Amino acid sequence: MREAYVIDDIFDNINFTEQSLEVGEYENCTFRNCNFEYADFSNFKFTNCEFVDCNVSMTKLVGTAFRDVIFKDCKMFGMHFDDCNEFGMSFRFEGCALNNSVFYKTSIKRTLFKNCKLIEVDFAEADLSNSVFSNCDFSGATFERTNMEKADLRTSFNYIINPESNKLKKTKFSLSEVHGLLRQFDIEIDKNS
C-alpha cells in the first residue's frame, strides 16, 4: 500500500474519528479545529505542520515523526511522546492541555511550552535542557533523573522537583516557586517573610 505525501494543505473542521487521516507524510500542512481523539498516527511523518484548536487526545504515536511541528490551543491528554520516532523530533506547544501525557526518556531539548497545562505529565529521564516553560502548570508532574540544565521555569508553577535526583545546573526558577525544590526535605517555609 502506498503512503500519501501531502504538502501545503489545510484540513479544517474535520472529524477524523469518523474518517481516518490517510497514512503518510504531511509537510507544511495546517490542521484546524480537527478531532483526532483515539486516532492512530503510527508511522506518520509531520514536518513543519501546525495543529490549531485540535483534539489529539489519546492518539497512538508509535514511530510517529514530529519535525518542527507547532501545537496551538490543542487538547492532548494521555499522549505517549515516548513512542515517537526520536530522529529530528522537535515541536512547540502553546496554550495546550497535555495532562497525563508521557515524555519518558525523550530528548526534547530547546522545546517551548507556553501557557500549557502539564498536569501529571511524566518527564522522567527526559532531556529538557535549554527548554522554556512559560506560565505552565506542573501539578503532579513527574521529574526523576530528568535533565533540566539551563531550562527556564521562572513563570511556571506547582512543580515538585528533587534537586538531588535531577540535573538542574543553571536552571532558572522564580523565588516565589522555589519551595517546589525543597518539598522532599519536609521543611516549613514561611511565604509571608
Automatic annotation (TrEMBL):
Protein name as it appears in the record: Pentapeptide repeat-containing protein
Name the InterPro entries for this protein.
5peptide_repeat, PA_immunity-related
Task: Give a Pfam family name.
Answer: Pentapeptide
Provide the species name: Chryseobacterium indoltheticum
UniProt-listed PANTHER family? ANTIBIOTIC RESISTANCE PROTEIN MCBG, PENTAPEPTIDE REPEAT-CONTAINING PROTEIN
